């Protein structure tokens, strides 16, 4: 599968964007092509590529699976230009996803998909999820090791705190007597 996490499309703006950070009223995004950053507000119509799917005769097919099929067909290279003739675009799309719903998937949707794929491919953001999972596993193991050492240090501190209390003295946990009877 293709990793589309954090890649968005903003209605009314050309191209694709990567979510960089959160702000009070929206998110800070970075253009994949020119690396310029700007805020995208809640009033913009933002679509995450990870959540987009296309209609088929059976269940809807996620965009990442369709992009994986294009990636396999082109051996990681660019696909057909999205500005080609409609008949060429339809023929290419049928070769990638033969069971698509011909009534609900329009040529404009196909062209947008091919434009997105080519932009991701040209900017180097067309990554496989398997590559990411290896990196994530390494990060989680490092985090677990750090957490285990922190827990060991906390236990060690607790043992030393308990040793400082004298025998026979009861320790009160922040209880204060008011002195009123």
Structure notes:
The protein is an alpha+beta fold. The protein has helices at residues 63-74, 86-96, 107-123, 129-164; strands spanning 2-3, 7-10, 16-22, 26-31, 37-41, 46-48, 53-54, 61-62, 127-128. It has one domain (2-128): Arc Repressor Mutant, subunit A, CATH 1.10.10. The strands form three sheets. It has a five-stranded antiparallel β-sheet with strand order 5-4-3-2-6. The chain has a two-stranded antiparallel ribbon with strand order 1-9. It is globular, with a radius of gyration of 27 Å. The N and C termini lie far apart (73 Å).
Summarize this entry quickly.
By secondary structure, the protein is α+β, with helices and mostly antiparallel strands. 42% of the residues lie in helices and 18% in strands.
Largest sheet: 5 strands, antiparallel
Whole-number radius of gyration? 27 Å
CATH class: Mainly Alpha
User: Which stretches are low in confidence, meaning pLDDT under 50 for 5 or more residues running?
Assistant: none
Helix-strand pattern? EEEEEEEEHHHEH
In total, the number of domains comes to: 1
Lateral strand order in the biggest sheet: 5-4-3-2-6
Mean pLDDT: 81
Percent of sequence in beta strands: 15-25%
Q: Can you count the beta strands?
A: 9
- Helical residues, percent: 40-55%
